[in-house]
Amino acid sequence: MANVTVRQAEVADAEIIHRFSVKLAEFEGTPNAVVASIETMVRDGFGPNAAFRTLIAEIDGAPVGFATYTNQYSVWEGKGTMFLQDLWVMPEVRQQGVARALMQVLARECCSKGHSRIDRNVLDWNPARRFYENVGCRHLDRSRPYRLHGDALTKLAATEPGKGH
Ligand SMILES: CC(C)(COP(=O)(O)OP(=O)(O)OC[C@H]1O[C@@H](n2cnc3c(N)ncnc32)[C@H](O)[C@@H]1OP(=O)(O)O)[C@@H](O)C(=O)NCCC(=O)NCCS
To answer: How many CB atoms sit inside 10 A of residue 132's CB?
Structure first.
């Protein structure tokens, strides 16, 4: 096992967050999916009202992986929840516990804030599904993600409420 440390990202890490995000997008077969810039990551990823937060994993002080996450809320539970957005570890240091260390720190933050869970979507072909199961995640097989975006979103937004379609 490598000597992994995990810390909250600082503004100076925005370039790394951007670079790692692009690497993950390439891995997922959507190399152009990261349209955000380093500047938008600086704007939205830091400060008391950050839209997302980032954990950086390091080995010997060098960044080797990251996890980005957002806060959500369960109305039914009356508690905050967390959503893990991105998780990526450099290929050279995989299978050494880096991602597990990131998940451990995320789980600690979740519990210390009184949040009830960490949610995550995983592509069906990704062998990382085993990773999530290994750290204790359970696949919600009755739940399927849906998304309203692009033309369908703007089309629905442009219609008059109550006026049919
Ligand atoms: C998935 C990923 C983050 C795992 O990182 P990692 O640092 O190698 O994982 P760890 O070494 O902490 O592994 C923890 C456990 O999961 C298992 N595991 C890790 N990656 C796995 C994989 N691809 N397939 C099966 N099991 C895996 C490990 O064997 C280990 O099990 P153990 O704790 O019982 O020994 C890394 O492989 C990666 O960046 N993959 C490409 C990007 C990706 O798929 N990200 C997730 C998107 S949903």
So the answer is: 19
